[in-house]
Specification:
The complex is a heterodimer of chains A (129) and B (64).
Chain A (H helix, E strand, L loop, with lengths): L1 H21 L3 H18 L1 H18 L7 H22 L3 H18 L1 H14 L2
Chain B lengths: L2 H23 L3 H33 L3
The chains are: A mainly alpha (129), B mainly alpha (64).
Amino acid sequence: MGQVMQITLVCVVTALLAAAVRKGAPEAALLLGLAAAVAALLALSESLRSLMDFFAELTARAGVPNELFIPLYKTVGIALVVKVGSGLCKDAGAAALASAVEIAGAVCALLAALPLLQKAMDVLLELMG
Amino acid sequence: MDVDLIFRIAAIGILVAVLNQLLVRSGREEQAMMTTLAGLVVVLMMMVRQISELFQLIKTLFGF
């Protein structure tokens, strides 16, 4: 709970600073946004790690092979990076680049999920004979 | 959290903006442009390590 307050405060203060800097040096405002995003995500690392450990334990106890969940984790990571990256591109006023980043994220997420789709297809083909 | 870095970047941004204005007002546009570029490069150098750290974290965390 404290962490979310902390991150919110840092992001809001950074947004204010960026608004102050934007008139004189727009690129510095953008870098400020990038720095705050990176700092916030790095600050989240501990919580994220404990969450992932819990998920790993859960899958281990459920008896589901871990490789079934790896594509899921990868997709979450891709989504995290792509969301922030496309937001930064939009902040810089480059909506086309933001769309390119989002498309790249979608393609890479599908690629990461490909083993899973392959397995599902295998099961389906087996059922159909 | 790395709040120091954010404030440092904000300070550099303000400094660069003021220098830019000063140089533009005194008619040295190309030097103003150089100042802006130098500020950009300095801040980028400061951030590269953080960004690589973040990517490394995401790579290890999500099993890439």
